[in-house]
Amino acid sequence: MALRGKHILIGITGGIAAYKIPLLVRLLIKEGAEVRVMMTEAAAQFVSPFTLATLTGAPVGMDFRRPDGTWNNHVAWAHWADLILMAPLTANTLAKIVNGQADNFPLAVLMSAECPVWLSPSMDLEMYRYPAVRDNMAKAASYGMRVIPAEEGELASGLKGQGRMPEPEHLFELIRQHFQNRPPLPDLTGKKVLITAGPTYEHLDPVRFIGNHSSGKTGKALAEAFRDAGAEVSLIIGPNHVVDGSEDYEVVPVTSANDMFEEVKKRLDNSHIAVFAAAVADYQPAEVKDNKIKKADERLTIELVRNPDILAYAGRHKKPGQVIVGFALETDRELENAKEKLARKNADMIVLNSLRDPGAGFATDTNKITVIHRDGNTRSYPLKDKKALAYDILHELEKHL
Ligand code: C5P
């Protein structure tokens, strides 16, 4: 409940991404925030004010007049808020904001604000690139507003490019981070980040495999944290239920350790940062049977052979300036083993998770980590959700950049 007691005011304008705002509202409320929504007439064409009034439990601000004829005090709305987020923000309303035009209710509220104002301009790519729109974004930033860059991807027009409103989960994370007073993320714009995640499945026959309980949640959380920092992310992930194709970074699904190794090799040289969070199987069957193994004797022996150690490979081929992060899951002599692993695999940093703590480990949403640096510095974190830990890992990694 990181947002308990926080008042968040969302201003919606007439862009197609408006239909995603109810999801953001729900995420914020679930985290304890009080949310109110204001919107322009145009926004109401894209998402129903009734939906938002229902979700927030409060009237939606659209007009200076309340339905009973009394004044809807825009100043009181502004002063209620701890944060105002305009999302999605059209080119039109952006222009009005920077020109001080207040010809509707949300604009009047925004101009009465004492709290931080964030803008999430979202529009089609040509519009997003239009010089006056760029100037207006720069102007808004110079007035102290936070301009959240639009993301790359598919646009409502069918074109691809920059202009998408960040997904509700991303906006939510930025808000949560803001109220947690975390230091800002390092700016990783232009940096390529490779992440391995999830389990690997090693086939025994056409229907069976050797695998493990890794969910891929930590890897996904890391991918999102790096993306939030502006990096170009490739997530190479074993069989999982956590990615669904809606990710706004490269997702490379793989099955076995060998597949994962091949995909890592393709990208490693170009990566500035490589994080090995996957629970890679150490062994694979020496032979994969063409047909299903039939039950026969009371005992069955399967011969296994070693898998490539992907992290160790990356350590051996490390380029100057490249940062390599490994994970360790130990059941005994945790710290000593993790330190030894860091040296042996030539990593810059090792993230040690403990299986001993309740709430920590594989398929959970939370984890408890200790970060060990090459110079011997270590830091332990309390039990946290995996997204928050991903941010902590990113901050720890900053020391190596
Ligand atoms: O040696 P161990 O498996 O305990 O090391 C764990 C670390 O090594 C993790 O970062 C994991 O992703 C990586 N690893 C790997 N390839 C393997 C085994 C582990 O990349 N075959």
Please characterize this protein's 3D structure.
The protein is an alpha/beta fold and 401 residues long. The chain folds into 2 domains: 173 residues, Rossmann fold; 190 residues, CoaB-like (Rossmann fold, 3-Layer(aba) Sandwich), CATH 3.40.50. Helices cover 31% and strands 23% of the residues. The protein is built from 13 helices and 21 strands. The protein has an 8-stranded mixed β-sheet with strand order 12-11-8-13-16-17-19-20, sandwiched between helices. A 5-stranded parallel β-sheet has the order 2-1-3-4-5, with helices on both faces. Strands 6-7 form a two-stranded antiparallel sheet. A hairpin with a 5-residue loop joins strand 6 and strand 7. The longest helix is centred in the middle third of the chain and has 12 residues. The chain is elongated, with a radius of gyration of 25 Å. The model has no long low-confidence stretch (mean pLDDT 94). The site of cytidine-5'-monophosphate has 16 residues, from helix 11 and strand 16. Cytidine-5'-monophosphate (C5P) binds next to helix 11 and strand 16.
The chain-level mean pLDDT equals: 94
Share of residues in helices: 25-40%
Bound molecules: cytidine-5'-monophosphate
Q: Cα-atom Rg, whole angstroms?
A: 25 Å
Oligomerization state of this entry?
A: single chain
CATH architecture annotation of the largest domain: 3-Layer(aba) Sandwich
Unreliable parts: none
Beta percentage is 15-25%
What would the CATH topology of the largest domain be? Rossmann fold
Distance between the termini: 32 Å
Per CATH, the superfamily of the largest domain is CoaB-like
Strand pairing plus helix content: what structural class? alpha/beta
What is the domain total for the residues?
2
Estimate the global geometry from the Cα principal axes.
elongated
Strand order of the largest sheet: 12-11-8-13-16-17-19-20
CATH class of the largest domain: Alpha Beta
Number of strands: 21
Main pleated-sheet profile: 8 strands, mixed
Q: Helical element count?
A: 13
